[in-house]
Amino acid sequence: MEPQQNRGISRVLEKLRNSIRSGEYYEAHQMYRTLYFRYLGQKKYNDLKNMLYEGCLLLLDADQKGSGADLALLLVEVLNQSEDKECAIWTPKLSTIFLKIGRNNTTERDAFLVQVFKWTSQNSSQGNAPFHQSIAKIYWEELNYSQARYHYVHSQDGKACAKLLIEFQMVEGYKNEVDLFIAQAVLQFLCLRNQITASQTFNTYTEQHPKIKKTGPPFLLPLLNFIWFLLQAVETKKLQTFAILCEQYQKSLQRDPCYVQYLDKIGQIFFGIRPPQEKRSGGIFGSFLDSFIGSLDEESDDDLAQGQQKPSTSRQPIENSDLD
User: Is pLDDT at 294 greater than 90 in this prediction?
Assistant: First the structure.
């Protein structure tokens, strides 16, 4: 019975292929949708997924972007309904679909991407890292630097991310933003708890960017030194070092208002700093540093209770020559 059923499916697929080759795109699209509902009701998920994937590619290759994208969305629905968790198998195929939909069909492409990431997020709230990496490469090839950067930050490919950032900075950035491009990326990696890729990205960027003199660390740009020290502090998880760094480099960190928010999150993740309860005097940065000092005071009280002496605040001086 099963071989006969497979022969029937093969005949249907061949008929659909011939319809597309003959230019009968509308008829083929409607037949795919009819079979979608039929197979879905019969829970023939594997046959349905393979059929939709092939039909999607055939229509996209025939420049029927709307119909192809429609089948692509149906494919993702089936992946969800069948509870298929084989990301390693399907994400390369979904990346191919994304590429073939093309940059000129942003509405269909974006809708498809949103649904795919919902499906890949079943195992991780940040989505599937290899899929992010594949999408980043496609955007990079299309010179869509901002989107490529976003997806690389959610991947685990620090070397490629750094190379993208170098090109992005040199093509669209200002001369005085060499350090800003890498600083923001590293801070975002750390907020995503991805310190390994953060370090890999920073090292590759500072080693290969032609505008960064190969003398560091220490670097000529203070913000690069801050990031380098921060990565060391994250490794050791020493709260006092983190607090001192943020205080000593306050001027550099004020170049981008987002840095305080990133560092607040990093402090909570890696150093156990409590979230700020309210705004205090001195603006957002003053409140930020006050939360460090409060955490340090608590840490010192615990140490003293155990008969251990440690500095109680972040106010212990560091030589500027050691930091800049």
Answer: no
Q: Contact, 162 vs 208, CB < 8 A?
A: yes
- For 110-171, give the DSSP string: HHHHHHHHHHHTTS-TT--HHHHHHHHHHHHHTT-HHHHHHHHHTSS-HHHHHHHHHHHHHH
d(CA 30, CA 22): 15
pLDDT tens string 239-256:
999 999 999 999 999 999
Q: In the predicted model, what is the mean pLDDT of residues 195-216?
A: 92
How much is the pTM?
Answer: 0.84
**For the chain, how long is the longest CA-to-CA vector?**
85
Residue 316 to residue 121: CA distance in whole angstroms: 44
The residues, ordered by sequence, that sit 6+ positions from 62 with a Cβ below 8 Å of its Cβ are 20, 23, 25
Give the Cα separation of 174 and 154 in Å (integer): 25
Residue holding tokens 């607040």?
A: 264
